[in-house]
Amino acid sequence: MNKFKLTINGQDHAVEADPQMPLLWVLRDRLGLTGSKFGCGIGVCGACTVRMDGAVTRSCVFPVSACEGRDIRTIEGLSEAIDHPVQRAWIEEQVPQCGYCQSGMIMAAVALLEQNPTPSDGDIDAAMTNLCRCGTYPRVRKAIHRAARLMAEA
Amino acid sequence: MTDPTPRPWLVTRRAMLQAAGAGTLLAWALPARGYGSAVGDQDMLIAYLGLDPDGTVVVTTPDAEIGQGIYTTHALLIAEELGAAWDRVRVQFSGAGEIYRNPQKNLQATGRSMGTSGYFRVLREVGAMARGQLCEAAAARWQVPADECDTREHQVVHAASNRALDFAELIEAAVRIAPPSEVTLRRPEDYRYIGRSAPRLEIPLHASGRSQFTVDIQLPGMKVATLQACPVFGGRLGHFDAAEAEGMPGVHSVHGLDDAVAVVADSYWEALQALRKVRIAWDEGDGATFASEEHAEVLRTLLADDHAEVRVGVSAGEPDRRLAAAQQRLEGRYEVPYLAHATMEPMSCIARVADGQCDLWSGTQGPMHARDTAAARAGLAPEQVTVHRTFSGGGFGRRWQRDFIDRAVDVATRVPGVPVKLIWSREEDIRRDWYRPAYACSFAASVSPETGIRALQVRLAGAGLFELNRPGQFAPQPDPSVMSGFRNHPYRIEHLHVDWRPIRTPIPIGVWRAVGNSQNGFFLESIIDELAHAAGQDPYAFRRDLIDDPRRRKVLVAAAEAGDWGEPLPEGHGRGIAFMESYGSIVAQVAEVSVRDRRIRLERITCAIDCGTAVHPDNVKAQMEGGIVFGLTAMMYGAIDIEQGRVRQGNFSDYPLLTLRDMPSRIDTVIIDSGEQMGGVGEPGLPPAAPAVTNAIFAACGERIRALPLARQGWRLA
Ligand code: FES
Ligand code: FES
Predict the structure, then answer these.
(1) B527 has pLDDT over 50
(2) What is the SS3 string spanning B496-562?
(3) What is the mean pLDDT of chain B?
(4) Which of A149, B72, B136, B529 has its CA 20 to 30 A from that of B61?
(5) Is B635 touching A (CB cutoff 8 A)?
(6) Calpha distance B310→B477 (Å, rounded)
(7) In A, which residues are within 8 Å of B203 by CB distance?
């Protein structure tokens, strides 16, 4: 076991873990940050999506040893009052069904909109590769367009 | 009527527990009114409704929230009658208990799309009883007759004197009043919640990562476990060597179960690493010879075998004679494979067993049998088991099974006092499922442009879900799961025969979203489409003219009109239509696709549904969207293959789902509020989806799809 210093949502955390332990399990089982979910463990579904220095990262396949000194952002850090424009859009479009994939979806959408404030349908298609078993995709698309409008108004 | 003792429904959960300790709870037994349980109104009130001192209404839902939105629907039924303000309502999950049984099935179980219709009356009555108490309390204060008072936006109002009091101000007085023994429910024209789409209460939780699924629950001293089961169904654990695994960092202990090995550790990942180092010898048993490809061949043989066991499900007229006499006979064979559920949250359950008590944390769809199976495993009585329910990361019937409960309890009994969170890997989840069974279907028919369908003979071959453990249980009737859609089809077919040829399978099979309707919709609506084309008729007009019942015809027409049926389409595009009635709801869908070089693009899907009353219309639409995507994932990709008794697929890499880029540019839903008997919405959107699309593919390019999934036959999504 090694010691690692992580910066998560602007806060420093010290953890002990095997260097190969994926960030997802450090977040969930060491730090109790359970907003990021486990869906596949092989980087395919996106339920574990976090942002690292702004980039979309599938934390189930990202070793903790590569996380030091990086700015890690999870769903927990998005807003206190659940009022980030993407969250507001998600609520207004009533996107989630079971909800399990939604933290990852939202984190991917936040990253997309920061890079591209007015994404086209094609841009959304290319960026949003997260899986949703409940089939919320049509609403995810609408919510991203709505969030883009909310962000433009702000 | 005034009573000195506080009414239990008007206290917080914490206070309720204290009251129970002080022996004041349940002091008032009113006559039972037959909710399918032997409890009185007072108990129902306590079970489903609480009021915090600040006036917050706390609704207890007896159902699992698996994405179908029942969390909100149950709350709005109570809020409607109580006159609650939506932003002062919250929801909690019930435990397991007889009092929570769904009156429609006399069981506390989330399934068969009955969460809304089953509790529709009970929950409104509960809300109305509490309204009666609050009105009486206010009336006493104002010195006016109680029947002049009503509730609205969390206040009791007396319109004549223009006075109003917040619920919070009335609690003290209302707790001393017995609930009315008779209640008057609000008239539909006065509804403020039913038929409107209040924002769903669970959505802010999901949008912030704060909803607690089983995998998210954290308890003091908790350990995390994962397991590997024998890869062959029916196999057992032989022996195992855990020496290396036990020494690995973070590992607590390694356990051999009947047919699995589990590792308990500080984290899931550490458990998984250690599990990979356990050397396991399985006793595979007979299951190791099973191959799904051979099974499919056996199903085909059964369809043609006149000496097979045949159980007739529908028999009308004399289709045999008509077919023998027919000049033109149309024949075909359809096939679908085994399917896994692949809920987004893999199977999971937390169990703690100690001191004659077992606690479970689970998103189970069957709390009562979860309780009972845990009791049996732990050697306890059901009363010694407490079920704490959590959000469920998808269900689709998978969380109706007990295996993930059993395994967690098996591990927890080996580490007494330690709460163990057992999380299955995605691979275990896909390889140890209770699969939607593979089916084959053949038909022979004769049609004419004048008389429509002259005769139709359908044969089905596959395993029966409900006969899994007791083959022949329903003979000479077919297994109840296999005739879905064939008995309640809407068409005028005078000469119809449908039979079932059962087969046993060593593969665990179980309920899956829409169950038998999921494959029968594809079979029946493809066949009807073939017959329409054979008769030289437009597939929509053909169906419409064969539907006599106006309610059903209206749904078909609504889908066709909203889906622009008959409007000109670009080259390479095609429209398909399908109809299916399931779980009491009538659904028709029109799909538009474009096809080029075996590449399909889903262009647009239009859905019409009559579920009687749409209690939450936006959620009805969400469920139609979800059902359609679920059905089309199965159509495109869904297949579980078994070789040497082992499931070949293991993760989303080889059991893929549709993604956002595959979505049609529009999915529109038209709701027809007929006011007829209420049906469900969680499942009925699924069955017509695949045939609407495959019928559209036929319209676009002339190729009839008779086997799913499409990816198996070289089709791709563009
Ligand atoms: S859990 Fe990380 S991508 Fe699926
Ligand atoms: S909302 Fe259930 S998996 Fe996406």
Answers:
(1) yes
(2) EEEEEEECCCCCCECCCCCCHHHHHHHHHHHHHHHHHHHCCCCHHHHHHHHECCHHHHHHHHHHHHH
(3) 93
(4) B136
(5) no
(6) 10
(7) 90-91, 94-96, 99
pLDDT at A133 over 60: yes
Which candidate, A16, A80, A122, places its Cα nearest to that of B209? A80
Cα B326 to chain center, whole Å? 43
| pLDDT per residue as tens digits for the range B77-91 | 999 999 999 999 999
Closest CA to B621 of B674, B667, B582: B667
The secondary structure of B450-512 as a DSSP string is TTEEEEEEEEEEE--STTSSSTTTTTTSPPTTS-TTTSS--B--SSEEEEEEE---SS-B---
- Name the average pLDDT for chain A: 98
Give contacts of A106 with chain B, Cβ < 8 Å: 207
Per the structure, the count of domains in chain B is 3
Interior/surface letters B512-521, b for 16+ CB within 10 angstroms, e for the rest: bbbbbbbbbb
Whole-number Å distance between alpha carbons of B504 and B131:
54
Residues A39, B51: Cα–Cα separation, whole Å: 37
- Half-sphere CA count of B298, side-chain side, radius 13 A: 16
Token pair recorded at residue B432 = 């140890």
State which residue of chain B sits closest to A18, comparing Cα positions.
B249
- Ligand 2 atom closest to Cα of B343? 3
Ligand index nearest the alpha carbon of residue B363: 2
Contact B276, B265 (CB under 8 A): no
Tokens of B31: 């006559």
Q: Which two tokens stand for residue B265?
A: 């550790």
Please give the pLDDT value at position B32.
Answer: 31
- pLDDT tens-digit map of B22-52: 322 222 223 333 333 333 577 888 899 998 8
Q: Are B559 and B608 in contact (CB under 8 A)?
A: yes
Pairing mode, if any, of strands B260-265 and B251-256?
antiparallel
**Whether residue B200 is found in the same domain as residue B226:** no
Residues B182 and B232 in one domain: no
Residue B688 region, left (φ>0) first, then alpha (ψ -120 to 50), else beta? Answer: alpha
The domain containing residue B146 runs over which residues?
A: 13-208
- Do the domain assignments include residue B8? no
Ligand 1 pocket member A39 (CB < 6 A): yes
Could you tell me if residue B301 is inside a domain?
yes
The answer to whether the Cβ–Cβ distance between B218 and A32 falls below 8 Å is: yes
Tell me if B7 is assigned to some domain: no
The partner residues of B224 in beta bridges, in order of sequence, read B265, B421
Burial class (CB in 10 A: 0-12, 13-18, 19+), A125: middle
Record: contact A98-B659, CB cut-off 8 A: no
pLDDT tens sequence across A32-72:
999 999 999 999 999 999 999 999 999 999 999 999 999 99
d(C-alpha B97, C-alpha B215), whole Å:
23
**What is the DSSP secondary-structure string of B173-223?**
HHTTBPPPSS--PPPGGG-SSTTS-PPPTTHHHHTTT-S-BGGG---TT-E
Q: Which residues of A touch B197 (CB under 8 A)?
A: 94
Tokens encoding B556: 């078909």
**pLDDT tens string B479-521:** 999 999 999 999 999 999 999 999 998 999 999 999 999 999 9
Tens digit of each residue's pLDDT (9 = 90 or more) over B365-398: 999 999 999 999 999 999 999 999 999 999 999 9
Q: What domains sit in chain A, N to C, each tagged with a CATH number? A: 2-77 (3.10.20.30), 85-153 (1.10.150.120)
CB B319 within 8 A of CB B457: yes
Phi, psi of B314 (to 5 degrees): -135, 130
Taking the Cβ of residue A62 and every Cβ of chain B, the question of whether any pair is shorter than 8 Å is answered with no
- CB count within 10 Å of CB B330 equals 18
B128 token code pair: 């109305």
Q: Are residues B549 and B670 in the same domain?
A: yes
Rounded Cα distance, B252 and B248, in Å: 9
